[in-house]
Amino acid sequence: MKESVLHYIWQYKLFASHLLQTTEGEPVEIIDIGKLNTDAGPDFFNAKIKIGSTLWAGNVEIHTKASDWYRHHHNTDTAYNNVILHVVKYADQKITRTDGEIIPQLILQYPERIETEYEKLISEKLWIPCADKIKKVPTIFISGWKNVLLTERLEQKMDSIMRLLSESNKHWEEAFYIILARSFGFGTNSQAFEILAKSVPLSILGKHKNDLFQLEAVLFGQAGFLTADLEDDYGLRLRSEYDFLSKKYGLVSMNKSQWKLLRLRPDNFPHIRIAQFAALIHNSTKLFSKIIEQPDIEYLRSLFKKIRPSGYWESHYTFGNKSVQKVKSIGEVSINSIIINTVVPFIFCYAHQKGKQDLKEKSISLLENLPAEKNAIVKGWSQLGLETENAYDTQALLQLKKFYCDEKKCLICRIGHKVLTLQT
Ligand code: SF4
User: Fold this and answer.
1) Alpha carbon of 245 to ligand 1 centroid (Å)
2) Residue 19 pLDDT more than 90?
């Protein structure tokens, strides 16, 4: 018997609520079950419970067996002194506070079917545990859940942005530059791009922003691509420039081996992405400030659409290997991905920190104006009948799959609640 099932039953008041009494036979009336606590300490805070003729306000702790109270050493922990009711499935022992006072206990009675259905649900080997039941859940109900999931996703991303911001001495432009660089790695080379951006401060690139050649020299040099075995004329000129600039600024390059090319399409090669990133720096000043001044989808797209790497990259994907002529601008899918995964979370985080509710809402509405992403997870949801209209929908469903379905957190999923209660 999982303790989380008892939490779920308590939280959604699925227990038999008539004729409740403590193990000592005193009548119990639940006025308020309290607020779920996901941090350390008792499971539910600020409950209101009438026991006998006394109304108590305090916390509720839930365990499968009463003796778990001692197993977890709550009897010696003052954080549990304000527990007013211990809710259990099996009352195998009386329990006490740190001063030895006995705490009332309630044996939770509930339909056994909830437990059985839950066990059945999480043992399913389908794409998601509720794959054969989700069609019964009304669409309107899922829409409400998507709002919560989307906000949760943006808040999770906010945590990593805040870490980066603190590393950047609260310099929003610098933090944005690093996170934007990360997005140019498109997953495979995101880590390498972050290392690259952190190895050369934005202030140094800013000094050379009017000279695309110098920007390329610094970025390719720092990335470790301007190695001694280069024979290509353009590469050699970049190296010579980098030798000078790296000495001037005391820069130390990363190791080339940190970049991955295997199984990448040539348009995604790190050389091309670095050249595009250099062109972005070349074309923009105080990029983040401009973005928050005008958080408009067409404007954002235009910032990335106009990027054109230097002429050399029109006929190369790597140094020294000629290819057919092609302008290596950033494709629409990539631009959307950068906006969805980097620009929107960054604006959301900034708006949250500065208390700008309007801007926060605008950041979310940007997702509603971007097309639905195409990937295996979105396809999986579509096969279950959950269609997506825009990036708002796809981001919410990605969150659901990764942080709920894959973790089998059906008991804290609103769809899971519906699925379990529809069957009881
Ligand atoms: S977490 Fe929710 S959507 Fe995912 S399988 Fe469980 S009940 Fe279904």
Assistant:
1) 54
2) no
pLDDT in tens, 78-121: 999 999 999 999 999 999 999 999 999 999 999 888 999 999 99
231 with 314, same domain?
Answer: yes
> Which of 386, 410, 420 to probe ligand 1 with, by most ligand atoms within 8 A of CB?
410
Return phi, psi of residue 182, to 5°: -55, -40
Nearest ligand 1 atom to alpha carbon 129: 5
Reported as a single tens digit per residue, the pLDDT across 152-207 is 999 999 999 999 999 999 999 999 999 999 999 999 999 999 999 999 999 999 99
The pLDDT value recorded for residue 419 is 92
Q: Which of 323, 339, 368 finishes a domain?
A: 368
CB-based contacts of 88, cutoff 8 Å, min separation 6: 6, 62, 63, 64, 65, 66, 68, 105, 106, 107, 108
Q: Does a structural domain hold residue 128?
A: no
Residues with CB under 6 A from ligand 1: 128-130, 134, 400, 404-405, 409-410, 413, 415-416, 419
The tokens for 167 are 């590393």
Share of the chain above pLDDT 90, in %: 93
How many A from CA of 377 to the centre of ligand 1?
14
With a cut of 80, say whether residue 424 has pLDDT above it: no
Domain assignment present for residue 140? The answer is: no
- State the pTM of this model: 0.86
Measured between its terminal Cα atoms, the distance across the chain in Å is 18
Identity (one letter) of the amino acid at 326?
Answer: K
* Closest residue CA from atom 7 of ligand 1: 416
What is the number of the ligand 1 atom nearest to the C-alpha of 404? 1
Mutate-to-test residue for ligand 1 from 126, 397, 419, highest number of ligand atoms within 8 A of CB? 419
Cα 407 to ligand 1 centre (Å):
9
End position of a domain, from candidates 91, 110, 129: 110
Q: CA 374 to CA 381: how far, in whole Å?
A: 11
Tell me which residue range forms the domain holding 308.
168-368
User: Is residue 1 classed as helix, strand or coil in its secondary structure?
Assistant: coil
Do 179 and 101 belong together in one domain?
A: no
> Is residue 29 within 8 Å of residue 50, measured between CB atoms?
yes
Domain count, the chain: 2
